[in-house]
Amino acid sequence: MNQSNRPFSGLRAPASARALILALAVSALFPSVASAAGNESPAADKAAAASSEAPLAGAASSDASQAASASQAQAGESAPLSQAEIQAAIRAQLPGAASTPSAVSEPSGSHVARKEFKLPGTHWVNQHLDFVHPRNSAIATGSAPSALETASVDLSGVSVTDGNGNAVTLADYQNRGDVDSLLVLHRGQIVYEHYAHGMIEERRHALWSMTKSFTGLIATDLIQSGQLDPSAPVTQYVPELQGSAWDGASVQQTLDMTTAVDYAERPDADPGVVQYMFAADLLNVGPLYQGPKKIIDFLKSLKKNGDHGAKFEYKTVDAEVIGLIIEKITGKSFPTLVSERIWAPIGAQTAAYALQDSGNAYLAGAGMGAITRDLARFGEAVRLEGRYNGQAFLQPGTVAELRKGGDQNAFRAGRPNAREGSSYHNQWWIAPGNDHSFEAQGFGGQRIYIDPQNELVIVKTASEVNLNIEPKPTDLDRPIFDAITTAVTQAH
């Protein structure tokens, strides 16, 4: 096999903390990547595992170690770590780390306790992705955060039955699914809020593929305003993609992921999600990897395979194409679009972030991060069809278009076991017609669940890594959400 075509030839021992932390996270999230790569020795695995559990005192060395030790002796083990100390510890253990400061700094008051600091861990990565990634930009807030009132409801009695017939309480669900945060809004009020695994209110969590729903919402709003033609060919807006898989595909087919692209969202596919992560600079490329190292180059390299519009195939690359389209027709960057069209109008309390590839292109398919409360504000604003915080920031028909859903036949052609009547439309997951709910979903258990009929929004961030167990923790999302809905509506 030609070395340059090997799907995992670039997955070598990384040279920076960013790459090591992300590689460890991916090896946990995609177990088959590490085993298929065959590049890591058992000794390296043990060393990586040891480093992932190393507390600060063992992580630092030389000047950084002395500085950390002196600071620790002076302030005590319970004193919080500053961002500078964390960076020093990472750099000392893994040279070259965090050489470019994050554009979005860690919020004040949200530092972890010194005795709790460990490197790395999937929860830590999801809560600090902007910190370990060298390039990201802030998604700015408005002048003041919108109010979120609290009207707590006791959900301790919430329980469902899993696929094995076992009772699962809400606490069991949160533990089993590695839930970092869970927030429930009813009629705009917080009725339940839970944080775990180091996650706190002020900390941004990686959204992964929930980013797609922000991208899709903006595209839908541009369609409703007449700025974007959904029936137009993709190449009308992005001529660089002529000769690629999207040559002949429409904007709508790309929004609904019914394009016929020779790509699969699997770690064992080539081209697939691992090559996407190389291009997105989410995984460090080794010296033998000769594939595309920027998102636009990766998109241009992909070829057509089948007929556009025939069936749904979930593909992050489609979202990246939509990201290019909305940037080109507005002349604005992705973070500027999210800020002006969503983040500032909803009164977000904290700047979100958007990651960039090595060419500074924004990852419109998987690159955002935000705090849980702001995701709840976003979900509530969408539930209210863009009429929120004293503003009307979406076109009147935008949310109605989302909820209309996509081609159900194409969806079932790609997902034969999907619920009857469900679909995927404009980067949102749409429930059957009599259900009325729709949601944003992201890898590892991220969810923004919107139920207009019951005036409910549920936000979940998670770092689920047990992907090989049955039933999967995410299989319980819908039963738990239904049970929460019943408990909340009965209480109010």
Automatic annotation (TrEMBL):
Residues 1-36 form the signal peptide. GO terms for molecular function: hydrolase activity. Keywords: Hydrolase, Signal. Residues 60-79 have a biased composition (Low complexity). SUPFAM superfamilies: beta-lactamase/transpeptidase-like. Residues 60-82 are annotated as: Disordered. Residues 181-462 form the Beta-lactamase-related domain. It comes from the Bacteria. PANTHER family: BETA-LACTAMASE-RELATED (PTHR43283), BETA-LACTAMASE-RELATED DOMAIN-CONTAINING PROTEIN (PTHR43283:SF7). This is Class C beta-lactamase-related serine hydrolase. It comes from Lautropia dentalis.
